[in-house]
Automatic annotation (TrEMBL):
Protein name: Uncharacterized protein
Native source species: Aurantiacibacter marinus
Source superkingdom: Bacteria
Lineage of the organism: Bacteria, Pseudomonadati, Pseudomonadota, Alphaproteobacteria, Sphingomonadales
Amino acid sequence: MNFDLEMVREFLDQIEDELELGLEVDDLFDFTENTDVEDERQRTFDVEFRGDDVSMTYVVFMDDIDAPDVAFFVSDEELADAINKQMEAFCQKHGL
């Protein structure tokens, strides 16, 4: 999903508030904010989802200085669906 940089933290907060994964929101936002234009970076870590450890890869592609593409890759289909629902809810909330 492509975001204005200023919305990334709010989206990460929403995911953490709704799914309680144990995301390090400040670290992920800093990681996003410090990605150079035309650079793609990723970070892989474990989160807890419904009592199980799940591998998550957070990917940022900074195609514009103020509008990164953000993606999540997870090893659990239910978590992938839950993240997609959060993206949809975020888009609806903000008219995206």
